[in-house]
Amino acid sequence: MAAAWCVGIGLAVLTTVTLVGWIAAPRTALGPGLPGVFRTAVNFWLVAHHAGFSLPGGRVGLLPLGLVVLPGVLLYRSGGWMIRTARAPRPVRGVRGADPTMTVVVQVALALAVPYAVLAALLALAATTPVVRPSAWQALLACLVVAAVAGGLGAGRALGAARGKRVRTGMGALLRLLPERPRSLVIGVLGALGVLVASGAVLAGVSLAMHLSQATALFDELAPGVVGGALLLLIEVVYLPNAVIWGMAYAVGPGFAVGTGTSVSPTGVFLDMVPSFPPLAALPEPGPAPALSLLAVATPFLAGAVGGILSVRAMPSSVHEAAPMWGFLTGAMTGAVAAVLAALSGGPLGGGRLTVMGPSPWRVGLMAALEVGIAAAIAAWVFNWRILRRSAGPSDRPEPPKERRRSGRKEPAVPTGKRAGRPQRRTPAAPKPAETPPSPPPAPRPPRRPPVMADPVEFEEAEPVLTPRRPRRPRVREPLDSPAPTPPEPPADRRKREEPAEPTDPEPAETKAEAEAAPDRQEPSRHRDEPERTETRGGAIYVLRDEPAED
């Protein structure tokens, strides 16, 4: 669905522009009727993906790089839309702790690129005419690459935003997904490549500004009219990225060609007849290269220094002796990317002398790899050495003693030279202030104990507790038929009064064995009528005996 939407919107925009040109230009130029307009729009759409086509006079491969922005933006937005509408990524099967982020980005990019490329190949076959024959296999490959790259960038950015990360561009989101070492190389390559592209843009802009009058005169000679002038200006704008890359090739050294047997480089300018295209008026005059342009030769070395420093700074740890190797690897990768850009910016423009247009990819790539690589290796080694020296500096210095460091006083300098043998004058020491006695340490607080509940038995005034009385020993009564016991012999003379005994609580009933073991125990009190009885008065026990009467 996303691929179909991208194809439809891109074709709608280019069909509108083509229809405007068909109305303003002769109707036979774009083909008879609206079908010819649609085929022309399809060819422009394929050119926007850098897919060339063939004419009876030759092949057209010098395609505008600025036109790639239209499908690139659509595919970028589609990749983000697919991430937002898809479910949350699941962990990769068979891999413990694997982060599914990169896998999801690749899956989304392929899911968008494959149907997009198939639709492009079908459109290329449908737009084929005896005059214009677009390459189906080139359309398939070019659309697959463009859709995968743009869709992957959009998916990476949307996925980072969905996880709460602050990401500004899709490239930054993909950089976070890479491992640390490859990420440092990519950062170094991007830094070096940015310096090279900036130098190319400066060269192209300065040269066009210096030859602006010639470009204006050439534009007036074409006399395209209002609508044709607007379309011609649009074509010039989309070809500006090609001019920037040609300026980068000039700064690297090999330069570029504008036809067979021509060369524009710092070593000299050799030109022949050039097409009547206003941006080509910025080419320098044949002969020695302008002296001001020779300053651009130092740009690759500056780019190498920037790339080497950025790659070392982005390293997760110090690389020690491997820093030059990483710097040179950064330069080699920069040269590879520069070669790809040089190949995309040039190509044939029909047959004859214009079959060679633009810079040589292998020459630009080789020179950029050597110049940027050497400068990056040196810069990486120097920057890494400074980092190691800075990190090891504070630890190598002797640390002053703690007492001296706290007091802040300096030790007296040892005399040297002529003053070594002379006695040193002693300066009277300043009176020390009276030392105040140290304040006594505060008394330790007693440990805090948890509260203890009061004993319910403990009272200030104990109340009497009435305990149950012990049961009395049952009285043994003799049967009635038994003879009455003989009373004991009373003591002589008189009734004797004994001392009161201390009261005792009645004891419980005892067994027979206990009674025999205690024969001296007091017998129970007898009846009042008995000759010998006891009475209890005031808590004392009295034994009453009757004295016999005197004769």
Strand order within the widest sheet? 3-1-2-7
Number of helices: 15
Low-pLDDT segments, ≥5 res: 90-98, 402-408, 455-463, 493-499, 501-505
β-strand amount: 5-15%
Shape, please? elongated
**N-to-C span:** 155 Å
Order of helices and strands: HHEEHHEHHHHHHEEEHHEEHHHEE
SS elements, strand count: 10
C-alpha Rg (nearest Å): 57 Å
For the biggest sheet, the summary is:
4 strands, antiparallel
Could you estimate the helical fraction of the residues in percent?
A: 40-55%
What's the oligomerization state? single chain
Keywords: Membrane, Transmembrane, Transmembrane helix
Organism: Thermomonospora echinospora
Pfam family, one: DUF6350
Protein name: Integral membrane protein
Structure description:
Among the domains are: 1-89 and 100-177, no CATH class; 181-392, no CATH class. 49% of the residues lie in helices and 6% in strands. The protein is built from 15 helices and ten strands. The strands form four sheets. Strands 3-1-2-7 form a four-stranded antiparallel beta sheet. Strands 4-8 form a two-stranded antiparallel ribbon. A two-stranded antiparallel ribbon has the order 5-6. This is Integral membrane protein. Residues 430-445 have a biased composition (Pro residues). Pfam families: DUF6350 (PF19877).
